[in-house]
Amino acid sequence: MKAIQLEQPKAFREIDLPEPAQPGPGDAVVRVFRVGVCGTDYSGYLGKMPFFSYPRIPGHELGVEVVAVGDGVTNVKPGDKAAVEPYINCQRCYSCARGHTNCCENHQTLGVHVDGGLRPLFTVPARKLHVSTKLSFEQLALVETLGIGLHAINRSNPRADETVFVIGAGPIGLSVIEFAKLAGAHIIVMDLNEQRLAFVREKMGVTETILSKGVLEDDVKTFTDLTNGKLGNVVVDATGSARSMVSAYNFVGFTGRLVWVGITQDPLTLTQPLMHRREMTFMASRNALSHEFTRIIRLIEGGMLNTNPWITHRAPMSDLIGVFPTWLKPEAGVVKAMVEVN
């Protein structure tokens, strides 16, 4: 069977693989129908993702169908459609024992640390499959992206009377917005790209946006005016830019929380007095938890989350090598690209 491998940064190639054997105990073989493309994939392609190893078959946002199951599997059966929770945890380390499976000490993410879903069939632990009888394969492939946003909101726990400031209106920022909306919070979004901000206003109903010109003092003043001097109770930086991540704490109000969802290999340097004076809390947000996948599926099934506007670009896997670099260009207007595998 054909698969797409990222041999090294900026170098995709098509490879031949054998079809998977019958699954062992606790495992399932799945047929991949849709693969969402996210910032991790773009960063891996550019050589900027610190956890990415090469050569690697990318693909961790997956809509699949179960083909076969091994002994002891009771949560799925052949024919089930499912989203894949791509964070393969060891179930033995201290983090796993405490329920923090998203940051397992021996963590392996599909498509990042180990091969992912840009292939027709592969084997996965059946416990990582989240079934829906109602969602399309494209909707199932969006669940992981939405999980990143839900986990960030669960970490920061905004209330309905609080302001959430989202920096970066890419797919992860959009997923944060979805769950900040469900929390009832006041939302303001900032980005360097007016096209993305227009999407936020027109498709997501967030009326207050800031088009940053890259001048921190101007952005802080605009945000201060919009919040009547209160600044943000929760500030979520979803850019992956070291410059933005360092600047983000200037938007945090007194006793506010700063969440870094993005990741960078560059050092972050900031001065501490402002953080101390406002008694800020800094936190990272990594991946998502199993119960968050379950909640997202139920929200989409119940019509509480509308995924229709998200997918702006599609391509069959056979065209991916040629089209992938074009999706990196800002003028392409990509919100979420989807690869059709089967």
From TrEMBL:
Residues 171-301 form the Alcohol dehydrogenase-like C-terminal domain. Keywords: Oxidoreductase. The keyword Oxidoreductase applies. InterPro entries: ADH-like_C, ADH-like_N, GroES-like_sf, NAD(P)-bd_dom_sf, Zn_alcohol_dh. Residues 24-130 form the Alcohol dehydrogenase-like N-terminal domain. GO terms for molecular function: oxidoreductase activity. Pfam families: ADH_N (PF08240), ADH_zinc_N (PF00107). This is Enoyl reductase (ER) domain-containing protein. It comes from Gemmata massiliana. The lineage of its organism: Bacteria, Pseudomonadati, Planctomycetota, Planctomycetia, Gemmatales.
